[in-house]
Fold this sequence. Notes:
Layout: E1 7-13, H1 17-27, E2 36-41, H2 48-55, E3 60-63, H3 69-82, E4 88-93, E5 97-98, H4 102-113, E6 117-124, E7 127-131, H5 144-151, E8 156-157, E9 165-170, H6 171-177, H7 189-199, E10 204-214, E11 221-229, E12 232-240, H8 247-262, H9 264-281, H10 284-298, H11 308-321
Parallel strand pairs: 1-2, 1-4, 2-3, 6-10
Antiparallel strand pairs: 4-9, 5-10, 6-7, 6-9, 8-10, 11-12
Amino acid sequence: MNRRAKVVAVVVTWNRREILARNLRAVMAQSRPVDEVLVVDNASTDGTRDMLAVEFPKARVIRLSRNYGPAGGFFAGIYHAMKTAPDWLWLMDDDGVPGACCLSEQLTVAHQYRFDVCGSLVHDIADPARLAFPPPRRDLPATIDGVRRAGGTRGCLVENPYPWNGLLVNANVVEVIGRPKPEMFIWGEEDEYMDRAKANKLRVGIALWADYAHPRPNFPSRWFVNINIGRRSMRSGCYADPTHPRAMYHARNQGYRDWTYRGKVYGCARLLGVGAHLTLTRGIWAAAAYIRYYIDGARDRYQLDPRRDEVLSSLTTELSGA
């Protein structure tokens, strides 16, 4: 008789006490219970620690000394979770809400189709009929029913899942590709982890009946090609609004992903396109800042702030002392 697989839920949070509580209530109410809940607190200052101690005493809490972003949070969370010898990791940010049968459905689909990484179908928490994120393929509609019809009787799609939204990861994956890059901090680290999984020929997919709710993202995106014709739009060259305080993190992570997984021709096209567009619309200094950070990531240096060596040194010291 096969033993039941051990599943450890890893939830990363920062200063969202009430939202985190909503998430944890849903995680702990799964029809197929998780075996352990591990919360990584990125140095919250809003009373998260006290709330966890009172409302969720069974959760294991890892409190970091500063905010390392989702990249550092999942780096630390996966490190601690793997110490308990799990079969699966269930990874999520604090603002998602898994349906009662979400984990059960993901486990079923992952075993049936031998997925190494299995995501859920993420709907808009304010409009459950629509996806919270863009469709997993460009030819698919932005509705839950439309994507499910595309999966047919299989109940899954062999497409990139939505990372950090109830992402079910086999523990063997961590042995193959490691943990997220903590120096990425935010905006791109989750997609890079999926890029890495596919580059290593791991099987990834989406369980279409695994229900997961999430607010629609408010990422401050801009495009250097954005043409609307009727109901259709042609967009290319996404970049973060340079006025946002974290825009350069996205530029650098974008450079790393382009050069590593898409090739230099693709990377040069984006660099020239976005650089020219920023020069014309925001001025030479905005373009120069984007180009500096993009190249810093493309060459995998990560020497502009926050520097990789400083982030890794600090985080590694914390983990070794835990």
